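One such shown below:

_____
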Amino acid sequence: MRKHIVITVTNDLTYDQRMQKTAVSLSMAGYAVTLIGRQLPQSIALSDKPYQQTRLRCIFNQGKLFYLEYNLRLFFFLLRLKLDIVCAVDLDTIVPSYFAAKIKGGKLVYDAHEYFTEVPEVINRPLVKKTWEWVERTFVPKADLIYTVSPTLAKLFSEKYHHPVGVILNAPLLIEEGRIEQQHSSYILYQGALNEGRGIEAMIDAMKQIDMPLWLAGEGDLSASLRKKVKDQNLENKVIFLGYVSPEKLKAITPQATIGINLLENKGLSYYYSLSNKYFDYIQARIPQVCIAFPEYMALNENRPVAVLVKDCQPDATIEAISRLLNDKVLYAEIQKNCDFWAGKLNWQNEEQKLLQWYEKL
C-alpha cells in the first residue's frame, strides 16, 4: 500500500508554486499525497492535479480567531485521515500537524518557507511574536525532517533547533532555452504578493522616469492603497495591475518581460535571508532582474551575475539599475547568457532529487 503524505498550508492552494511542485514530485514518486489549504471568499475552482486537494472553509479569515479556528478544523480533519507523514508548512500549521502525527503514529516534516517569527507582520507585535516563538521552540525541534528555502536560514535554524536542516530552493521546473520565445514585449515585471516591505511603492514612484510599463502580478495587503497611489499620480498607463495570476499563466507572462523586479526592505531576518520564487523564475525565463543586495542574492550573483543589485529600494537606485539594463546592450546580453547557465543548475528537477531522498529515508 502506498504511503500517504499530507501537506498542510493556510493559503487556498491555487497560487502556491512550491507546494504544487512538491506534491506533484511526491505523487509521481509513488506516494499518495493530499494537499490541505483553506477556502477563501475569492477562491477560484481548483484545477485537476495528480494528487488530492482539500480546502477547509472558515468563518474567520484573518487575525487570532482565524488561526485558532483553522488549527482546530485542521486537527480534526487530520484525525479522519489515514496518514503516514504530515508536512507542516510554516509555524501556522505545525501544532495540529504535530498532534495528528503523534496520535496517528506518523512522521512530522517541517517545511519553513520563511523565518516566521521574523516576518514584518510579527516582529513589531511583541505578544504575537512571543506566541509564535513559543510554538517554534516547542514543536519544530520535534520534527523528524526539517528543510527550508535558503542556506543561511538552514544554518540559522540548525543552530537554533539543534537539528539538521536541509535546503530546498524555490526553483521552478527547467525550461530548455529553445522553448522560450525570445521576443520580449517591453514591460517590467514584478510577480508576488503586494505586501509591506516589497519596495512596490518605490517602484511606482520610479515609473515616472522609466519609459516602459510596470506589470504587477499578484495581490496582497497593499492592493487597495497601491491602486490609489497609481491613480493619484496619474500612472494608470504606466503601472498595470494583473491581479492574481495562476502559475500556468505566469509561465507565459514572465519570459516575455524585459526586466524582472525583486526588491525587499530589511524588515526582519525572514526577508534579509530570503531566496524568493521570483528570483529563480526570472533566471529560468532568461530575463535580467533588478534585485536587492541581500546576502543570499549577493552570494549567487558573485559568479556569473544574473541581476543588477541595488543596496536599497529607493526610487533613485531602482531607476539607475533599470536604466543600466535598458541602455547597456552588452550587459543585458551577458546577464541573459548567465541566466541560461544557471537555469540548468537552479531548477526543480535538481531540488526534487534531494526532496525524494529525504522522504524515502523517513
